[in-house]
């Protein structure tokens, strides 16, 4: 303890704590107004406070620094009821990083996280998939378009000036999936075997929920085709409704799930 009495004065304890920190780290933490006038004098480098006032953790001048830090932690615990963490972070503190595999290193092969569209010198490249085996590939993507109540009611009643919003957006999404390699420079021109786009009106938040599916039998995945389908479908909803409101928001574009390929299956949130 800092004082021989268990009921030592709090301000005096803070002053002694500052002394300890100055001894270990070579500087005094800034005065926060909680310490006594003696602490203020020391923080302001008053000459009447000599180095003899500092308590040394070890009787040896060349004390072990690690031991000093350990004793310093004990002093903190005696005042505040807890001690500073020592050593490397525990497994519990690493739980968040464990949920983000791209933040970890060591056990996971670096090849899992290579940017395949980037060459050795950093230049953009189209991946050569010729060595790969053909397999069944599927992907599902989703998107949401928030309309607002006024526009939502117009779409629901099919009273938009440009016509049937949901049908036009559906066709636009299917068409876009087939044009993905023309829109995304490094995507492969693949033979799609299936494309489906569904749009559903959601009364809870006055939005349009869009889901797109794509499939192929080939050497590369169809994630981008599904993502492009829902993205362009969402843009088409905006175009069909923009005369009624400019505040329409396209949001939550993401891959929902995929199957096939070297990387295996994927499902959002799992």
TrEMBL record:
SUPFAM superfamilies assigned: Molybdenum cofactor biosynthesis protein C, MoaC
UniProtKB keywords: Lyase, Molybdenum cofactor biosynthesis
Protein name as annotated: cyclic pyranopterin monophosphate synthase
A Gene Ontology molecular function term of the record: cyclic pyranopterin monophosphate synthase activity
EC number from the UniProt entry: 4.6.1.17
Pathway it works in: Cofactor biosynthesis; molybdopterin biosynthesis
CDD domains, A to Z: MoaC_PE
Polar residues bias (residue ranges): 89-98
Molybdopterin cofactor biosynthesis C (MoaC) domain span: 126-261
Signal peptide: none
UniProt catalytic activity: (8S)-3',8-cyclo-7,8-dihydroguanosine 5'-triphosphate = cyclic pyranopterin phosphate + diphosphate
Keyword Lyase included in the entry's annotation: yes
Keyword flag Lyase: yes
Xref: HAMAP family: MoaC_B
Record GO biological process: Mo-molybdopterin cofactor biosynthetic process
Region: Disordered, residue numbers: 80-101
